[in-house]
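Exam review. A common question shows you a sequence with its structure tokens and asks you to describe the fold in words. Practice with the pair below. Do the first one on your own.
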Amino acid sequence: MTTSSSSSWVFKAIMKQRDVIEKHHMWSTILNAEKVKIRDIYMNLIQDQTPKPWRRILYDNGARPRAKFILWLACHGKLETKERLKRFGIMDDDTCSLCSAQETQNHLFFECDEMKSMLKQVLSWIKVQHSPGIWDEEINWLRLNAKGKGWKAKVLKIAYTETIYNCWLYRNDRCFGNIDSNRGIVDRIIDTIIYRAWLNPKLRHHVSVFMMP
């Protein structure tokens, strides 16, 4: 079975791994083995791949699984922005739902003034002074500043991941006319950061400091 240019990127990725399995004769090895180790299969599948520089942003990330999934899609450049949908012939208009610019992922995160304002408010709450740029710049900045196992890195990863997720939800709501303002979204993001960080005993004290007036 072959893939076509119209196949989804997920299907193409699955079929690519099938070719890797056939190339290394892994399937016959699996069938003949007395005990199958998933780790061995995984290590064989990734041996020819270059690790993504942003992968550690998702490691030890205390954000909600749904938020991490959206971040993962964004890191792969697979969010269905209007620019992508227009390129695929699904829609004609690629104007940002929040301003008059073209809605690319780079624009949406965080070149768009409204999205940038929300992220700056969240960063200000966790005492991080940073002026957001476009997506490629931000993901590199986050990768460099969320290194290690310290509490600051953990809180920063939660804050960024939940902000990206809520910004994407807000964008979708604006696209479909469900809401007309971002009122309350920053407060909701902060509430989620508090809840997720509170699940980690090592982060509770630091988050409680942020909560003080």
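Now try the second one, then compare your answer with the model answer below.
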Amino acid sequence: MAKRKFYVVWMGHAPGVYTEWDKAKQQIQGYKGAKYKSFPDRAQAEAAFTKGAASYLNQALSSASRSASHPRSRTKNTVPTTSSILSQSISVDAACSGNPGRMEYQGVTTAGKKRLFHRAFPLGTNNIGEFLALVHALAFLQKQEQPDLPIYTDSKIAMGWIRKGKCKTTLPRSKKTEELYDFIDRAEAWLKENTITNPVYKWKTEAWGEIPADFGRK
């Protein structure tokens, strides 16, 4: 069972302290410049709400704002990453036998490599798998009420597609890809209907080795 958290909404439709993520999410969804953060207990949450957002600004911004204000933020030639591995996070990856070919993706705990989810399709591409893995991770963490837990991916393309809210694949729709495209459509709808709160970081393969979610087929 997920550990209970308390959610502070400083700027949203109805600012306050919430005990359920679904109710807190309603206050920030569609609210430009929403400021919010989770806390492990009610006392901390109420104190933070009273004190105001200024002391928690970097943590409280949505992922887009967080990327813009973070010292490791994206520039013209870089993507968001971390100086060292955040063990309290999850990692995602995809593998494809041929491209296109049989494709699968998974999400694991970065520390321990415990599998959290996995999907396989008879025909797909690696980029599609990376995109679906990221969206699956975001939706999974939302259901687990962990809106702050970081996600690692080794795909810049998938990160770009997430920012755009669109899977920019050229793979044709066909009977073989019917199930895959159903997942793509659902993923794009989720991105449209939900606010991304979890930070998404680029895994530094050159420095850290293969991402923990790697399928080991290289």
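Model answer, second protein: The chain has eight helices and eight strands. The first strand starts at residue 6 and ends at 11. Full marks require stating both points clearly.
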